[in-house]
Amino acid sequence: MHPLWNKDITLPYDSKLFVNEGLLLDNAGNIYIRGRIYNEVVKEKKKGAPNYSYKILAYRDEGKSFKEYSVNLKDKFITDLGFNVPMMISWQ
């Protein structure tokens, strides 16, 4: 393996409230970060309701392009999330 690009990336969330749950890298060098963003405190539930949401952060085109995807199922409580991209390498 050899580097396709190099760039310092700052995640758009407070590091105390964002939990990185995995990173995917496709053959084109695009990076996808899966994580949970918590509301105010890192606690699964608050008053019986989920206190977090899932996000997928995509860095494409050598890090020049960024897109954030929110993952939700309306009133359903998502406890785990997985996804794949074609032809990828995975690090946990």
What is the overall shape?
elongated
Distance between the termini: 18 Å
Reading side by side through the largest sheet, how are the strands ordered?
A: 6-5-2-1-7
Low-confidence stretches: none
The percentage of residues in β strands lies in 35-45%
How many whole angstroms does the radius of gyration measure? 14 Å
Largest sheet: 5 strands, antiparallel
Protein structure class: mainly beta
Number of helices: 0
String of helices and strands: EEEEEEE
| Strand segment tally | 7
Percent of residues in helices: under 10%
* Average pLDDT reading: 84
Short summary of the structure?
By secondary structure, this protein is mostly beta strands. It is built from no helices and 7 strands. A hairpin with a 4-residue loop joins strand 1 and strand 2.
Itemize the secondary structure elements and their pairings.
Layout: E1 18-26, E2 31-38, E3 45-46, E4 49-50, E5 52-60, E6 65-71, E7 88-91
Antiparallel strand pairs: 1-2, 1-7, 2-5, 3-4, 5-6
Explain what you see.
By secondary structure, the protein is mainly β. It has no helices and seven strands. It has a five-stranded antiparallel β-sheet with strand order 6-5-2-1-7, with no helix packed on it. A two-stranded antiparallel sheet has the order 3-4. The mean pLDDT is 84.
Defining traits:
92 residues; mainly beta; two-stranded antiparallel ribbon; 0% helix; elongated
